[in-house]
């Protein structure tokens, strides 16, 4: 019997696992897909929110600010991309100034530091591509951008290195209460555990409602995005938010941690919790509203579009607690925006609950640091030549758009919780994320996966499950 089983290997589950690995504990993370970061955590804005938006006094506000303060140090410890680039909330008219002031006052009460209200001239000095119609803006220097894949994978890898087990392709189907704990019935057999952490994203209500009489409801809230090429990455240097006003809420425009420009999202409640398709209507909305606050966005530089689902709980609040009527079951539910920002603090809160409940002792072998995949572009020419001399795979470029080498892909596959699919490689190395969107590098990446995993080309998938890349041979169809 495990001490703890965490359902879900997204950013909340992985953060909880990493914090839990600080203690002597027999714990496991189960994930229904073939990899970490395969649900809500993989498709979002990558924004580290300052903390002025969440309602004062809410758990959401508290963990937002705490997570923001933890992110920079965490990025150094676990070696993932993060930049404190600041954010601006754009006000377009004098009549909307009370709303902007309300955001400022809420941010101050929430504990956000360095907030300022800027006039038109100050805004345009910071960001020349802001619309000429700007009246004022709320400036939050503590806002940032992060690689959501990098954060999630780093947390999971570090948790695994420190003794937390991960079981993939393991879908929780039912939960039965027993003396001293639970039985989780999965497609891979029954799992017994003393405690459960419910970090199942849009499905967290399903598992909560299996064990509690006090039901919750989580709606899948779809957000659609456009991602622009790195040639557009400098169009703005800060994250630009719209102030809700007479023209609607608008969409954000922001650089990404890797130098692209992202525009979005929409906000549409849907019934299908797997409904991550983009729509013509949604993308038209993104394109149309993006120009409200930022002028001359080079939309011809869009290289892909995508959508993600936010786990919207009816009361718009994080639920992180042990259930009164189901002792041993700990919710980590309703983790929508600012969930990515809050994740380090969420993980600590969950681990603190379990530490007290299980009377856990510190893990004397805990290693709090992790080194990410080596980026040869960060090396000097001399260092890079020496690396290639010692490991020739680093001299073989596989993805020309992002200049990703065979050495990086091999590392992505071999490291803890390594990549097993094209998307797994993509999230760890960015091979396939460039302008051609994997059009040229996929065959070479597949050859490396085939060799490194000792599997058939027919078994290689895009993202696990039945997403096989090769279904037959051309000569067999002639």
Task: Describe the SSE topology.
Layout: E1 2-7, H1 11-20, E2 27-30, E3 47-48, H2 59-78, E4 82-83, E5 87-91, H3 97-110, E6 116-119, H4 120-126, E7 136-140, E8 144-146, H5 148-161, E9 165-167, E10 172-178, E11 181-186, E12 189-198, H6 204-211, E13 218-228, E14 239-242, E15 252-255, E16 261-264, E17 268-270, H7 280-290, E18 302-313, E19 319-323, E20 326-333, H8 339-358, H9 381-390, E21 397-399, E22 404-405, H10 406-414, H11 422-429, H12 442-453
Parallel strand pairs: 1-2, 1-12, 2-9, 5-14, 12-20
Antiparallel strand pairs: 3-8, 4-8, 5-7, 6-7, 10-11, 11-12, 13-16, 13-17, 13-18, 15-16, 19-20, 21-22
Can you describe this structure in just a few lines?
The protein is of the alpha+beta class. It has helices at residues 11-20, 59-78, 97-110, 120-126, 148-161, 204-211, 280-290, 339-358, 381-390, 406-414, 422-429, 442-453, and strands spanning 2-7, 27-30, 47-48, 82-83, 87-91, 116-119, 136-140, 144-146, 165-167, 172-178, 181-186, 189-198, 218-228, 239-242, 252-255, 261-264, 268-270, 302-313, 319-323, 326-333, 397-399, 404-405.
């Amino acid at each position: 019997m495990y001490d703890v089983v965490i359902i879900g290997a997204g950013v909340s589950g992985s953060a909880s696992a990493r914090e839990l690995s600080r203690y002597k504990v027999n714990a496991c993370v189960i994930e229904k897909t073939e990899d970490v970061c395969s649900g809500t955590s993989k498709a979002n804005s990558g924004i580290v929110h300052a903390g002025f938006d969440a309602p004062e006094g809410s758990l959401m506000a508290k963990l937002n600010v705490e997570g923001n303060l933890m992110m920079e140090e965490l990025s150094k410890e676990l070696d993932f991309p993060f930049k404190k680039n600041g954010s601006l909330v754009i006000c377009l008219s004098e009549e909307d100034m009370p709303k902007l002031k309300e955001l400022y006052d809420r941010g101050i009460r929430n504990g956000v530091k360095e907030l300022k209200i800027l006039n038109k001239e100050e805004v345009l000095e910071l960001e020349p591509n802001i619309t000429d119609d700007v009246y004022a803006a709320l400036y939050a220097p503590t806002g940032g951008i992060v690689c959501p894949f990098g954060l999630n994978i780093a947390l999971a890898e570090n948790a695994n290195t420190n003794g937390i087990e991960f079981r993939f392709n393991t879908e929780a189907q039912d939960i039965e209460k027993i003396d001293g704990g639970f039985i989780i019935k999965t497609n891979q057999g029954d799992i017994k555990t003393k405690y459960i952490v419910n970090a199942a994203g849009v499905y967290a209500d399903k598992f909560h409602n299996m064990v509690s009489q006090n039901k919750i409801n989580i709606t899948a809230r779809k957000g659609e995005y456009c991602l622009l090429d790195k040639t557009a990455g400098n169009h703005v240097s800060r994250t630009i938010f719209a102030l809700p006003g007479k023209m609607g809420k608008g969409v954000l425009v922001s650089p990404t941690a890797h130098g692209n420009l992202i525009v979005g999202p929409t906000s549409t409640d849907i019934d299908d919790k797997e409904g991550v398709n983009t729509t013509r209507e949604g993308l038209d909305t993104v394109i149309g509203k993006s120009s409200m606050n930022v002028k001359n966005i080079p939309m011809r530089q869009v290289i892909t579009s995508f959508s993600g689902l936010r786990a919207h709980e009816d009361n718009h609040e994080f639920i992180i607690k042990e259930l009164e009527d189901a002792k041993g079951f700990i919710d980590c539910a309703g983790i929508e925006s600012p969930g990515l920002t809050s994740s380090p603090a969420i993980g600590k809160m969950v681990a603190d609950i379990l530490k007290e409940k299980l009377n856990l002792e510190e893990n004397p072998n805990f290693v709090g640091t992790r080194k990410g995949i080596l980026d040869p572009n960060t090396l000097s020419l001399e260092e890079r030549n020496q690396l290639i001399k010692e490991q020739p795979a680093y001299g073989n470029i596989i993805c020309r758009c992002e200049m990703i080498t065979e050495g990086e892909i091999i590392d992505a596959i071999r490291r803890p919780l390594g990549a097993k699919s094209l998307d797994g490689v993509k999230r760890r190395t960015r091979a396939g994320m460039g302008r051609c969107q994997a059009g040229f590098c996929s065959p070479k990446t597949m050859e490396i996966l085939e060799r490194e995993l000792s599997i058939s080309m027919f078994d290689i998938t895009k993202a696990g499950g039945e997403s096989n890349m090769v279904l037959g041979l051309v000569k067999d169809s002639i």
